[in-house]
Amino acid sequence: MKKIWSFISVMVLGILVLTGCGGGTTVKMATGGNTGTYYAYGTALGQILGDKADLRFNIQSTGASKANIQLIDAKEVDMAIVQNDVMDYAYNGTDLFEADGAVKSFSAMAGLYAEVVQIIARPGSGIESIADLKGKNVSVGDAGSGVEFNAKQILDAYGISFDDISKQNLGFAASADAYKDGKIDAFFATAGAPTTAIMDLVSSQSILILGVDGDKASDLMTKHPFYTTYVIPGGTYTGVDEDVTTLAVKATFIVSNELSEEVVYNMTKALFESKDAISEAHQKGAELDLSYAVEGISIPFHKGAEKYFKEAGALK
């Protein structure tokens, strides 16, 4: 009951869009804030997949990953876009879901695109690697956010705890402002690259992007299988000319276990058969890839998605 009431506030604030001209089945999709990538991506997909999968999509603006999982659990929506690390926490009842307990009412459909762990540091601050963050002023994202857990896990791999830094809990834009004002030496941002707040920052400030060493990355991926490696190409941000290898989580479609195998199979098939149209509608559509869709997914796939990926050769 405690959970259900928390969902009501999310749903009251949600913006609902009916999209697609498909058949009689309506699929309710939770996305994110109506100015964010999840909402725009979900809306674009709903328009394209409606006819392709013979469905009608009801797109809802929500509070993003954790709220979306709770909405599926409350049977308020049928599918959602979430970060795959938050998905893992929910399924296993850890970190962000330690207090709430495990949620098993959903399964994975497909990984969509990378959300990159970007660790930004100030040149001349004595920081050349993640190990140098010890003793520095570092923003690790909003308190209780997925970014904060990414920061905690990566710092831990280097033997650094939050007690070893002057920790600040700031969102991306606030972190960039604090960086400009000289109040922090570094900050974490987990988002698609390039990220707007960092793009704005480099218009007036120099930055370094810290890489995650190969052995540390391997250890982190073993311990937290939702991570994948990701190369931020040189030139992504002004003044950062070399490639930087870091870790990424991924935006992922999850679905209610109550959705039929046929519906989820048709949605998954339509998703990958519509890549060109999705790419035209939203830039993140270009990242759709069969191999990437199943990599770093640490919970079971829905039977419908599994059936498609086996047919397509992405799963054995």
UniProtKB/TrEMBL annotation:
InterPro entries: TRAP_TAXI. It comes from the Bacteria. Pfam families: NMT1_3. This is TRAP transporter solute receptor, TAXI family. The lineage of its organism: Bacteria, Bacillati, Bacillota, Clostridia, Eubacteriales.
